[in-house]
Amino acid sequence: MEQRDMPTMRSKRLGNELRRLRLERGYKVQDIAEKLQCGQPKVSQIENGKRGIRPLDLTVLLDFYEIDDAAYVASVRRLAKEIHKVDWWSSQGPLLHDTLRDYLTLEADSELVREYVPTVIPGLLQTETYMRRIFETRHPAEKIGPLAETRLKRKELIDAQLDFTLRTIIDVAVLHRISRSPAVAREQLEYLLEMGDRPNVSIQILPLDAAIPAEQYAPFTLFSLRGEPSIDVAWLEHVTGGTLLEQRTDVQIYTRVWDEFTAAALSPSASEKYIRDLL
To answer: Which SUPFAM superfamilies did the record assign (predicted)?
Structure first.
């Protein structure tokens, strides 16, 4: 990947991690520049995710920071290598905005995705017919096909990634407003049952009488990113895009909300029964 194509979600994650290591040890950018024998702008660009870091420089830095956890070092090295990875959605050009590219990167790099959706069926669990009807309400006709193809391509994660797990909580009202067409609604409900049978997919329905926090929460996703140790981040979705939360205190808040929602929701087996009864 060319430097002009950065920052990307991966390069920003790497830069944030290297900045964290530096600040925890009380070093200034100037100190790192002297250690790497380079200018301060280069160090700043690396920490801002605007450029990658050479393997040799990364080795020097990790040694300088006295990092001796072999698993952690391997994880950082892997991330540094993967910032140059060309993903399948890279060829989609202007069709996919930067926010969606960031989301796809987080999704592809995760071993566990926990998603709360109060308004629609989660993207990885949508039928093509259902997703096309959603796109029709927000996009011009020429974009619907490519957008549907992109969403369908994402489903390969569930099949291809043996270490990928999807857990979802769906508000019960969503099931009752899938479509005015009984055929479309039935197809989508049957697909939910099919996907729920997979060992790496969990579906829970949040009933109307669920005892949940009084606060109103927008759709959010918790990503557990692969690595040693695994890193959790939260993604908040809104009308104009999405916001990534990486601070531990912020992520812990949404992790607690997730735990409260899963406790209040129907169990996976009870959720399956609800969907069957609805069919």
So the answer is: lambda repressor-like DNA-binding domains (SSF47413)
pLDDT per position as a tens digit, 19-58: 989 999 999 999 999 999 999 999 999 988 888 899 999 9
Task: Report which of 249, 174, 181 is spatially closest to residue 219, judged by C-alpha positions.
Answer: 174
Question: Do 3-82 and 90-278 have matching folds?
Answer: no
Mean pLDDT for 169-180 is: 92
Residues in Cβ contact with 57 at an 8 Å cutoff, skipping those fewer than 6 apart: 36
Average pLDDT over residues 225-235: 81
What are the structural domain ranges in the chain? 3-82, 90-278
Q: What is the pTM of this model?
A: 0.77
Q: Which residue has the higher pLDDT, 178 or 146?
A: 178
User: What is the CATH T-level fold of the domain 3-82, as seen in this structure?
Assistant: 434 Repressor (Amino-terminal Domain) (1.10.260)
- DSSP assignment string, 174-225: HHHTS-SSHHHHHHHHHHHHHHHTSTTEEEEEE-TT----SS----EEEEEE
What is the CATH code for 90-278? 3.30.870
Beta-strand relationship, 231-238 and 220-225: antiparallel
pLDDT digits (tens, 9 = 90+) for 192-209: 999 999 999 999 999 988
Give Cα 205 distance to the centre of its chain. Answer: 21
Alpha-carbon distance of 169 to 262, in angstroms, equals: 7
Instruction: Give the strand pairing for 165-171 and 110-117.
Output: parallel
As a whole number of angstroms, the distance between CA 248 and CA 246 comes to 6
